[in-house]
Amino acid sequence: MTIWEELTSKKPFFALAPMEDVTDTAFRQVILRAARPDVFFTEFMNVNGFCHPAGRTNVARRLKYQPSEQPIIAQVWGSDPEKFTETATELAKMGFAGIDINMGCPDKAVVRAGGGSALIKNPALAADIIAAIKASCSQPISVKTRLGYSSIDEWQAWPSHLLQQDLACLTVHLRTKKEMSKVPAHHELIPEIIKLRDELAPETKLVINGDIADRAAGNELAHKHPGIDGIMIGRGVFANPFCFEQTPQHHSREELIDLLVYHLDKFDEEKCRAASPKFDPLKRFFKIYINNFPGASDLRAKLMQAKNTTEVRDILDTWINQK
Ligand SMILES: Cc1cc2nc3c(=O)[nH]c(=O)nc-3n(C[C@H](O)[C@H](O)[C@H](O)COP(=O)(O)O)c2cc1C
Questions:
Q1: Which protein residues are within 6 Å of ligand 1, measured from CB?
Q2: In the CATH scheme, what architecture does the domain 3-239 have?
Q3: Would you tell me which of 49, 54, 215, 277 could form a disulfide with 273, CB atoms 3.0–4.6 Å apart?
């Protein structure tokens, strides 16, 4: 049984979305502690970098994970089927529960390199990549994509094409590439997507993504559309790191500060960002934890001045002792 078939017993199962520079192993462990989803994804990793002797160390840091994060899916992007083959063989050895191909990223550099959403315009290459990766490992292969490239009217042809590639799972972010994240996700198209899946690939699990805030919202959507197998949540964790909890609870500022301290610990332990991890990217997380309580913005302003995790801990200690 593949991981996607196993997860279907929890229908709808919940996934934490891959988010570059956000969902590294440190942050995934934070989410695990707050309230766990059913499946994790790594940040996406470029197959060309991975296959290059000098590039591998840099990109492979994105593949770090702890056993507690299982089941975890490695997400990859690129445009050369051979590089996917080489990468998949290595990923299989690393114990990932599955491999997901990004065919939706709208980032200019990714599109210029022919990967991510550029594959929507090159369906033959997309099919070659899927076939190549499937032939090189026994891991279940999935794709995460968008509705289409430029126009919402053209959306059916692309998911139909993917559904004909015998995928274990298809995640659809309910926007086109052109829409970026600027318009509300097209939840109104869910019934048609389910119909397409049922007609073309009833065995392929369907995960819906886009503007789903938390488990309650995901359950409501799945209740309305029972054909949905899984729900993927991305930015919902920024507003509420406890968004995967079964029963929503109030979380005190002490709990949120504890979670930040846990994140600092994991950041120091995992050294996710490089051999000597750069501290500044961690600052973008402060708003997740230091928010929605009296004095939060003052405390956050102080934390933004910190130069390392020790200084963050000192500022938090001083602030707590003053209370
Ligand atoms: C900061 C950031 C980084 C992202 N990086 C990735 C990525 O590496 N791979 C991917 O498939 N999607 C990536 N995405 C898209 C998300 O996985 C998701 O599809 C999108 O945010 C919509 O879901 P949401 O409304 O639940 O956030 C990223 C999104 C954000 C905001």
A1: 17-20, 22, 43-44, 75, 102, 104-105, 144, 173, 209-212, 233-236
A2: Alpha-Beta Barrel (3.20)
A3: 277
